[in-house]
């Protein structure tokens, strides 16, 4: 069982989430392309060593990145699928929780051994400009999903085929998944990756991201334990 992180996630029961071998989808072959060592700032002046991997043959032709942390031989890896959030990951936007989630994942996975798959799926797949259009609509009172729909877009366009391809290319067909999002585990199961268990990420709430977090908890079944649910 995984240990809890500093923000008190818990490990849930094992999930029966793998497809039978006979029905495994053919995803197309991807293979590792380059593997480079990169020291990462992990807070409090600490550096952790990451290995960054690129791939040939990913299904959508985009540049997704695998970041390997900790002991690669430590058994079933702890994996986070982290969808790109330029505003949160790079600029530290407090409108969402992506930046602190990413940094907490680096720390936690460095301890456990595993991978962050950094997926180029900005704005849950709608792209940066559409996300900022959605932010404008949210300022008029819509929640994150209503704003997508007002733009004529689906709630969530993400497909995790490339994540399954990266995992298979690295020989990982069984993982523990660091997420609060049930769709990630379900999709990976259908794509032939056994999710042994999920580990909740911490809840990084602040006065600016309450509506974002409560919409995830109330509308898409994210396992987020907010102190107080905002309607
Ligand atoms: N469309 C849209 N996307 C947003 C908004 N706020 C954040 N995002 C995007 O939401 C995605 C968050 O991805 P993840 O960190 O993988 O989070 P998640 O799907 O909520 O699941 P877990 O963090 O794994 O529990 C990023 O791509 C952000 O850019 C928003 O208001 N609208
Ligand atoms: Zn974000």
From TrEMBL:
Residue numbers spanned by region Disordered: 1-32
Note on how the cofactor is bound: Binds 1 zinc ion per subunit.
EC number: 3.5.4.25
Keyword GTP-binding: yes
Superkingdom of origin: Bacteria
Biased composition (Low complexity): 7-27
GTP cyclohydrolase II domain location: 49-196
Function as written in the Swiss-Prot or TrEMBL entry: Catalyzes the conversion of GTP to 2,5-diamino-6-ribosylamino-4(3H)-pyrimidinone 5'-phosphate (DARP), formate and pyrophosphate.
The protein, known as: GTP cyclohydrolase-2
Organism, as annotated: Streptomyces luteolus
Name of the gene encoding the protein in the UniProt record: ribA
């Amino acid at each position: 069982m995984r240990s809890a992180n500093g923000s008190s996630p818990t490990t849930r029961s094992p999930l029966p989430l793998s497809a039978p071998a006979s029905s495994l989808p053919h995803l197309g072959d991807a293979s590792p392309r380059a593997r480079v060592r990169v020291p990462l700032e992990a807070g409090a002046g600490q550096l952790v060593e990451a290995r960054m991997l690129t791939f040939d043959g990913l299904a959508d032709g985009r540049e997704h990145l695998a970041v390997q942390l900790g002991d690669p031989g430590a058994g079933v890896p702890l994996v986070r699928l982290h969808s790109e959030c330029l505003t949160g990951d790079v600029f530290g936007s407090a409108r969402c929780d992506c930046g602190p989630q990413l940094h907490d994942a680096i720390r936690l996975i460095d301890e456990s051994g595993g991978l962050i798959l950094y997926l180029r799926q900005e704005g849950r797949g709608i792209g940066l400009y559409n996300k900022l259009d959605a932010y404008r609509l949210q300022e008029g009172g819509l929640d994150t999903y209503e704003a997508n729909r007002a733009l004529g877009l689906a709630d969530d366009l993400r497909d995790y085929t490339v994540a399954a391809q990266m995992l298979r290319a690295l020989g990982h067909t069984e993982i523990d998944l660091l997420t609060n999002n049930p769709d990630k585990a379900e999709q990976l199961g259908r794509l032939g990756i056994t999710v042994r268990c999920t580990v909740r990420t911490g809840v990084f709430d602040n006065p600016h991201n309450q509506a974002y977090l409560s919409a995830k908890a109330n509308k898409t079944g994210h396992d987020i334990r907010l102190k107080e649910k905002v309607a």
